[in-house]
Amino acid sequence: VDVIKVYDEFDRAEAAALGPVPANPGKWPVLRRAYELSSIGPLFETAPYRAPFRELTSRLQICDGDIARAFERYYADKAPSELDKKLFFQRAERAWNWLQKFAPEEFSYQIHQEPVAYPLSPKQKETIVAFRELLNKVDLEAIDPKDLNQRLYDDIIHSTGCDSKEFFAAVYQKLIGRDQGPRLPGFIKELGRDRIIRLLEDPQPVQ
Predict the structure, then answer these.
(1) Cα angle 166, 194, 183; round to 5
(2) Angle at which helices 184-191 and 164-176 pack, to 10 degrees?
(3) Which of 97, 186, 190, 199 lies 20 to 30 Å from 57 when distance is taken between CA atoms?
(4) N- to C-terminal Cα distance for the chain?
(5) pLDDT at residue 206 above 60?
C-alpha cells in the first residue's frame, strides 16, 4: 500500500538524516536535503521515535481506535519523552483517519464487542473446540508467531481434517465478521486468550 510505503520510507530517511554523518557521505547530503524538504515544522536534532505505520494500524484496531489505550499498552516505554508522545498521537490520529476513510478492505476491520452467531459446519465447530483447547494450553505471550502458526496446523487443522480455509474463515467470522483478516498467529497474540475465547462463544439468547 502506497501510504504505508511512504511512511516507512520517511522513517528510514529521518533516522539516516538525523544520525551521524557517514565517513563516506555519498548520497547522504541529498538524503538529508530530501528529508528537510519533506518535513513539516522545525527539524529535530535527533530522530524521535516513530511507531511503524503498518503495525500501528493493526494495534489501533485491536484497541478499537482508542489511541491512549494503544499508547499505554504498546508504546509508552518506547516513546518516553513528551515529544515522542506528541508525535505518536499525531501519527495515530492520522492512521486512524486513514483506516476509517481510505484504507483498503484487507487493512480495515472491526473486532466484535460481543459474541455473534455464525452458521458453522460440523467440521468448523470441531476446529473451534480444538482452537479453544489450544488457547488454554499455550502461553500466548511467550510463543513465537511461527511456532503458534505450526500449532494451528498440527493441533487443529491436521488433527480434525478440516480444510485450512474453512478453519480460518470460522475464526475470522467469529472475531471480525469476515472470511479473512490479519495474519492469525500475530492477531491471536495481540487479542489475548480471554477476549478470543469470549468471542468464540455462542451469543446469549435474547430474553
Answers:
(1) 40
(2) 30
(3) 199
(4) 46
(5) no
Cell 483447547, residue located: 133
Q: Which residues contact 81 (CB under 8 A, 6 or more apart)?
A: 48
Contact call for residues 48 and 83 (beta carbons, < 8 A) = yes
The predicted structure's pLDDT at residue 26? 85
CA distance 134 to 181: 20
* CA neighbor of 113 nearest in space, from 193, 198, 207, 181: 198
pTM of the model: 0.84
For residues 39 and 59, what is the distance between their CA atoms, to the nearest angstrom?
A: 25
CB 13 within 8 A of CB 34: yes
d(CA 28, CA 90): 28
All cell numbers assigned to 152? 494451528
C-alpha cell at 73: 499498552
User: How far apart are the C-alpha atoms of 59 and 75, rounded to whole Å?
Assistant: 10
